[in-house]
Task: structure prediction
Amino acid sequence: MMSFGLVARDHDGFVLEGRAGVLEINTGAEWAELQALAESMELAREKRWLKLELESDCANLTSRCYNKAADQLCKWAYKNNYTKAFDMDYLVEIHDVILRDAIN
Result:
């Protein structure tokens, strides 16, 4: 199983929403990254956001150190078999991931 995670932030870095999930099929990291990209674009479409900056934690694309929150969300979703969207009223576990990312 593979997992994905994404965090949507405003221009000040404030978390607006996010999603984390598990892919039911065993795929490579690139496919999980593609799912995160698709989920990101779907979220932007739902919210009618017109301007986006997409970041990735796929080792083939960029270093994970630049997107620790999404990387931690992937690990958390995988560990808990969790596939759900969240908004600003998110679970404590997700809050801890976001807070650690904001502090660092």
About this structure: Residues 17 and 90 are 8 Å apart (CA to CA). The first helix runs from residue 29 to 47.
